[in-house]
Amino acid sequence: MAEERGESSAAxxxxxxxxxxxxxxxxxxxxxxxxxxxxxxxRRLAPERLGITPDEIVGCHCVALSHPVELxxxxxxxxxG
Length: 81
Known about the structure:
The protein is mainly α and 81 residues long. It has helices spanning 10-13, 39-50, 63-66, 68-80, and strands at residues 29-31, 55-57.
C-alpha cells in the first residue's frame, strides 16, 4: 500500500463527454481473492452490466502488486488472441 497514490476527482465532477461508450471489445479481469470486491459480486455484475463473463485470475484487490505475472499474462493474452 506504500505505492498507492490519490485518486483524481475528475470522474465525479465532470459528465461523460460522449453520447455512448466507444464500440471496442470489452474484457473484465476478476481477481478471485479480492476481499474488497468479492468474486461472486463481479461474477454477477459483469454479465448484468457488460454482457460478458469475466476472466478469472488469482490475486487480491492490489493484483498488480500481489500477482503481476498472472495479470500481465491475462492482459497480453487479450492482445494476441
